[in-house]
């Protein structure tokens, strides 16, 4: 599996988008002060538009990188690929991702092929195989739950602070889903071949 056996000529990154990030109160758990429960505003009006976070998880270091943009179209994804290519110019990126249509755009595929970037698409309905999904669950829990950000800048700063704290303690990602029956089945098939 690409998650465990990294290619010697490159770097494996799991990429996905997180969002939509709109300005609305997010429920969560917290210690409540005695006799005065914490209140969140009503969500009738959601001003400020919607943003999306595109993020790669570098399996070799365990670090999460992110970009927050107003859309999640092919142009934003191509910009992310170009940034990854610029960050590690001497290594071939192996990008693990789901089958979201902007990632399969002809311009994205052409640029990736010309730049020697390997796009590794997961099977349909197999987005849970993308390791970054677990990181998004932690991001939601530790950075967004129980918040009521008034501006996108305030929310983006909270996300960036979480990513900095998380990356300071990051370790390489190994042993992806070791007890999964799917994993044992794929290993069985590999041995049988």
UniProtKB/TrEMBL annotation:
GO molecular function terms listed in the Swiss-Prot or TrEMBL record: nucleic acid binding
Superkingdom of the organism of origin: Bacteria
Span of the signal peptide: none
InterPro entries for the chain: RNaseH-like_sf (IPR012337), RNaseH_sf (IPR036397), Tc1-like_DDE_dom (IPR038717)
Ranges in a coiled coil: none
Residue ranges of domain Tc1-like transposase DDE in the record: 11-152
Name of this protein: Transposase
Protein's organism: Streptomyces olivochromogenes
